[in-house]
Amino acid sequence: MRRLYPLRSQLSRQFLFMLTGILLAVFASMYAYSVPLIKQQVFEIERNSSRLTLNNVFEIANRMYANLEDYRTQALHSHQQQLKVAVAMAESYLRSAYREGYTQGLSETQIRQRAFSALRDFTYGNHDYIWITGYDGMMLSHPDPRFHGKDSAQMLDSDGRAIVPNIVHKVRKEGEGFYQYSWQRLSGDKPLPKVSYVKNYPEWGFVIGSGVYMDDVETEFQLRKERSLAELRVALQNIKIAKTGYLYVFDSEAHMLFHPNNNIDRTEFKNLQNPVTKQSIFKDLIAVADTGKELYYQWDKPDDPGNYIYEKLAFVRYLKGFDWYIGSSVYLEELRSSAAILSTRLMALAALTILAALGLAYYFITQMTRPLEQLANTALRVSQGDLSAKSGIQQDGEIGILAKSFDGMVEQLKTNIDSLDTQVKQRTDALLETNAKAQRMKAVGQLAGGLAHDFNNLLSIILGNLLLLHERLQDKELAAYVNPAIRATRRGADITQRLLAFSRRQPLQPETVDVGQLTAETVELLRGSLPSHINLSYLPDPKTPLLATIDPSHLENALINLALNARDAMPQGGQLSFAVTALQLTEGLIFDESVPAGRYIQIQVMDTGTGFSEDSQRLAFEPFYSTKVGTTNSGLGLSMVYGFVKQSHGYIRIDSQAQQGATITLLLPAALDYPALAERGKDDAISLASLQGQLFLLVEDNADVRAVVRQQLISLGVQVVEAEDAEEGLSLAQALPSLVGLVSDIMLTGKMDGYQLAQHFAALKPLPIIVLMSGYAYPAALHKSNLSFIQLHKPFDLQQLKQALWQASQTKEAGLCKN
């Protein structure tokens, strides 16, 4: 085998000389053609960076102005709503005063004098008040003595027109509304712009009005504007262009609103001169604003103050809404130095690269020729079937590692080649079996989730439309057909939920339930299921609310199980009765165990069937125990009832004798917070009243479900915008600052689900109202977030949606829930 020695070989020398020539040519070309271009391009990049930074800050300020304008509109709208509330309160007070006065035998004049006197003392906001004027123009009630009891026809505006009579005429003709005019404050003489909400009351012969002064609204706007400028100052303080360049803000009156130099910040700089043009630097900056051109001028440096010889460039943008000029300023020397430094470093790097390349080329030729030739010969022998061949290379570095790896690979190949087919077959079979099992489990999981979601979507559409139909039906005969369909739909939803809960072993979901109403609904459902020879009746307690904190679906299952057991005990027919009463125990009682004193809801299921023997009564609650020989009955009915009652902290008892019927009594703890629940109902109305006219985002990928939920939301008095997926919903949330709430399905098409959308929405909106809909249980822990949201299970009715919104609004008041 012929040995090759570096630099003795003509090929090696030609390769080295050619590589050296190429590298030198590349270096010369780079220097001649790239360096000047690089310097120019870097200079332009640095200069454009200043312009881009300015444009970005300008856009931020512009959006800030747009948000402030929205705030002004919202503030006025809020005040207008307050005016409506004030007039409504005055109306309510007057009606109450009339009723009380007539009861006391007072005349209408006496009633009015007393009521008007009280209204004169009522103020709110910034000394805003209620005023009342008769159709004849007489000011019947006004807190200002200058106007109270006076003829309003003498109160003229700047054009000599009577203010109040004109408003009274418009209100009587056009109806209640908002009217703008000028009027003095209670403690002032100068008329100020004012907006009043005025409403006509023909039965009393006068109008009631309440107003707000526009300068109060403007004061709120200016405070918000000052806060925005303060936020902008903080942001601009941290922005640097190049090394020492900066941004600044001034107005058309030459007031420097922000400047990083404390000597100029918040001063008037109209008299500062540009040494280049010998004119006011203020006028020069305004002249280039929004022209796309930069201003060239000379200025001092922080380390050389007062020496105005350093060249600078400035870009300026004008924000008309705020009457602000936003400028950026950077030293030319810094722009050029960046280009020079980059060019120098680039050439130094190129020179080092050439030297390194030459050294590596020589090392490659010296170190690689012989080992590679030897390794190639060994590879040739292996390819010819000689698995005993070795390279014999013993050296450090990559070539040595490659040679050792190659020798080891050949040795391993020789060792494993005999058993390879068997191992491959075994591994293939195992992988196929594992993969098939994983695919089956995945398919079952996806099928269960998809079917539950789709089925509950269908039930949501059916239930929502049936409820809307029920609300609008006038025909009682048709309603008799719709009511069973509604109950059946809810039953289907309940079955789906229980199947999912059973499969996942979920705990009970207790809530405060009217046990009397739930029992009545269950009895109504049973009427169509029991044989005709069984007479079914229900005896509710007509006096006391029957509230208990339990899982309603499990209680319904318990009642159905007891009814079916009673049916089996009366094969020849009989009487099956349900009774629900409130029970106050002042001393203990014996059921399946000792019952302490307290308030309970008692449910009794009574039948006239065969009853329980002593053994049956003793073993009735044992799992799998059944007296129905020869049937497929599992014997779990009463044991399931017993388990539910004990989980609900209740008690159960069987009273029976053989062939004399049976009475099964359940005792469930009564809801101890009934007064709080009553208050909650009141709070519910107040919270939902505060949502009237508010804008909500509805996200649901099923168009039919979306239509049903949208109609339900509108019926609750809120405004709705819709989206088909989370991406569209997030875009709307970012574009509509007036959104206050989100109602979204969790399972959505697209890259995001409803829970991720809710997290983004909560980050965008302060204290949002968020309700998530789902056809099956969805654990928030999957997203590893400390935020949780109110979840509403499909299908649901209007009352359940209303309750969820109330819960979400309570969550809003206290901040978002923490898991």
Quick structural overview:
With 819 residues, the protein is α+β, with helices and mostly antiparallel strands. Helix content is 51%, strand content 19%. Strand 2 (128-134) and strand 3 form a beta hairpin.
Description:
The chain is an alpha+beta fold. The protein folds into three domains: 11-353, 2-Layer Sandwich (Beta-Lactamase); 507-672, Histidine kinase-like ATPase, C-terminal domain (Heat Shock Protein 90, 2-Layer Sandwich), CATH 3.30.565; 675-818, Response regulator (Rossmann fold, 3-Layer(aba) Sandwich). It is 51% helix and 19% strand. It has 18 helices and 29 strands. Strands 1, 2, 3, 4, 5 and 6 form a six-stranded antiparallel beta sheet that branches. A five-stranded antiparallel beta sheet has the order 8-7-13-12-11, sandwiched between helices. β12 and β13 (324-331) form a beta hairpin. α1 (10-103) crosses α6 (332-383). The two termini are 76 Å apart. The relative contact order is 0.05.
